[in-house]
Amino acid sequence: MHIMSSPSEEASLERDTNLEPSLNTQQEQTKPPMSKNKLKKLLRDQKWEEGREKRRELRKLRAKGRKERKRAGHDNQAHSDPAHEKRKASAEPEAPAVKKQKHSKYVQLPVSFVIDCDFDSLMQDGERTSLASQITRSYSENNKAPFRSLLFISSFGGLLKQRFDTVLAGHHHNWKGVKFLEGDFETATDHAAATMKTDRRGRLAGAFRRSEDDQMAEAIPTAGEVIYLTSDSPDTLTELKPYSTYIIGGIVDKNRHKGICYKRAMDRGVKTAKLPIGDYMRMASRFVLATNHVVEIMLRWLEVGDWGRAFLEVIPQRKGGVLKDGVSVLEKPPKTTIQDQEAGSETVEHFQEEEAASETVIDESHKDMNAEPAENTEVHQP
Fold first, then answer.
1. What is the pLDDT along the chain (382 residues), one digit of tens a residue?
2. Among 276, 212, 270, which residue's Cα sits nearest to residue 240?
């Protein structure tokens, strides 16, 4: 049954329909105009995304060219090698080539690093870009270190997470040996403690086991501590301890928010400490380090057990850092052999069970990966 509308209802409906375009126009007019710099950035990002496939094909062609040149070089060397010709003439079988291992051996240590990223709203776009690069470098340094830590990224959300999911193409979802958590650094420290205590990930090696009589060799999971690293702390870190968690402030702020990490730790009742840079080094500039530099310094200490050497090898030369008078560094320890590491093979395991299956390929062609990370992050060794 068809119900006829009254003339008044039709007129009302027509007025409402006519109002919709005017409301949309009014909303567009009240929307703040995009700044010139933001428009340029948007166009630049769009252009970068449009060229992603082209860059991928170009990388494939370059890799193919390198393989062909390498193969041609081997062929030329074989023809010019008299020994090779002699073996060929006498039909002597050549020794089979040893296949290079894709995954290098490493030792997982019972120690955790947490990058606290709960400062998203305090950073500008360029600073957030720098932090994303620093997190990527931190993962890379830990992933290739002979003595690895457990790595956690806490308070992972907001525009930082959006950048990882979009511009960086979500590669972080394939990273192994790192946990991205929405919870804050206290949630991350709880995860770290549970992992080190119950999952038996790793063994006491490297700087954690210098001698059989070392107290560290007798360390137990319950003896660990939680320390937030900040240069505003009155206490100085003298060594890293097994089953402990060290928190690094993930913020690039051009020194606008001084003392924010120290205050954050004090409000939560968390112990603080600063790296002993001033005890070992004389710097030509401020003690400002990127987040990835702090991670790399601690990784080097885990390997050599010497702060002076760790600082010298990691702190950029442009900082003009030199050892203070009277400070010496330890001789380079003997390289850890595969046999030494395999002695504890049941604990030389990946942070996740599936790590042995594949290794993440990071899109190193991205502009962020080739950029020098910003220095003034609030680790405040910074």
1. 555 555 555 555 555 555 555 555 555 555 667 788 888 888 888 888 888 888 888 998 999 888 888 888 776 766 666 665 555 555 545 444 445 445 568 899 999 999 999 999 999 999 999 999 999 999 999 999 999 999 999 999 999 999 999 999 999 999 998 999 999 999 999 999 999 887 665 678 889 876 444 555 456 666 789 999 998 999 999 999 999 999 999 999 877 888 999 999 999 999 999 999 888 888 766 667 889 999 999 999 999 999 999 998 998 776 666 777 666 665 544 444 333 444 333 333 433 333 433 333 334 334 444 444 454 444 445 4
2. 276
| Residues 274/233, Cβ–Cβ less than 8 Å | yes
Cβ(319)–Cβ(289) below 8 Å: no
> 107-116 and 245-249: which strand pairing?
parallel
pTM above 0.85, yes or no: no
Dig out the tokens for 332 from the structure. Answer: 């380079």
Of these residues, 116, 253, 306, 368, which one is catalytic?
A: 253
253: annotated active-site residue = yes
